[in-house]
Amino acid sequence: MTELHNLRAHRSAEHLPREQQLAWRIAEVAADPVAVDADVTEMIVNRVLDNASVAIASLTRAPVTAAREQAQRHPFGPGAAVFGIDDRVSPEWAAWANGVAVRELDFHDTFLAADYSHPGDNIPPILAVAQHTGADGAALVRGIATGYEIQVDLVRAICLHEHKIDHVAHLGPSAAAGIGTLLGLDRETIFQAVGQALHTTTATRQSRKGEISTWKAHAPAFAGKMAVEAVDRAMRGQTSPTPIYEGEDGVIPWLLGGWDARYEVPLPVAGEPKRAILDTYTKEHSAEYQAQAWIDLARRLGTERPELRDPANVASIVLHTSHHTHYVIGSGANDPQKYDPTASRETLDHSIPYIVTVALQDGGWHHVDSYAPERAGRPDTVALWQKVTTVEDPVWTARYHDPDPDVKAFGGRIEIELASGERIVDEIAVADAHPAGARPFARAQYLEKLHTLADGVIDPAELARFIGLAERLPELSADEVRSLNVVAPSGLIVPDTTQGLF
To answer: Residue limits of the MmgE/PrpD C-terminal domain (predicted)?
Structure first.
């Protein structure tokens, strides 16, 4: 059972009581010592495995290397583990390095509602603090359940992107709340940490606009790092701006909808299990989530109708889709870079015209090969790519926002006009891997994804050790939680390849 928290801006003279502030309500949820349901625990294990999959696949990529080497300059004991290496570092820096590794390939879980989110971004900071403080697996599970709950609840209600605020503004508070649950902190401390985490993690969406940079992977990691630091400060008695959401100079009146805005945030009532993770979904393909269903449709069409792969046979391809897809990753974004064969990987990841073109021609999608410069620059790909556009369809926009999971959809309708005059029309609602899709992901698929991405990267024995720990997550001792990490074989990670301040 949930309760809607009514949220609006307040003048200072109104003296909004602390108990009526959203940050306090978040703290109440985090401090509620409710048990974690078995199916929630099962999904948390899946997502720990999923995060490891994508972190392993990105171990040698430049942003991950830079973040890892920054973390290595901050050794600390007991400390927390960093993906790929044996070093122990200060927990906020482990959260940073592991957050970048998890986020770099845009390949882990997602939740889309009023805004966007990748709730698996909560796991690196919560796990880092668990390892540093000696928390056991049961506490870690409780903390992760809270992180997912708070982020999903915020995403259900508060749209950030329409005000050009990056979606990680919901992650700072959720990670701080999750750490509060992990450590069993009181409401006052969690309240202060949530406020500080929000205040330090609001930024514009330019990180996901135009020529998208490597910062896209760092932004969620930064939010996780700030959450760890906010909790540390709050535990030392330091306070945060209050009311952080509702205040006269707070987030709502100046960064979000303004003085007339009203939000209703659904939060669990006291004693209610935190189950929001079950409403989230992972990715089969390394691309923006709104591209997942389109990849599945395009690869099927390309296999069934190979002539569609030749631009000489195609007059136009129009994707009728939701507002979000059209304006964020479609032609409605008015970003020339989305049609630029020299664009960065991060930009191509946010170009549905490019993604559909490659999936159509290749009959699949690869987390490295599909973004390679030579792949993006192939003449027949460029020619077909320029013929793909998107339009917003009110029907698909409504389905995107529908709260009914049986109606909610992230795909659309494709209309292909051939040079011959023939028209091909098809549609897809959700990705094959979605819980309502053709091949929903369960433990077997999460393990398959992990084995596929770890193949040739991690020693099989090391991978088996990690999987054995992850699958016993709620039963792990503190020492076993500290070992919940994957170490790469000697020679894979070359040390000291980047130069910075420290």
So the answer is: 285-470
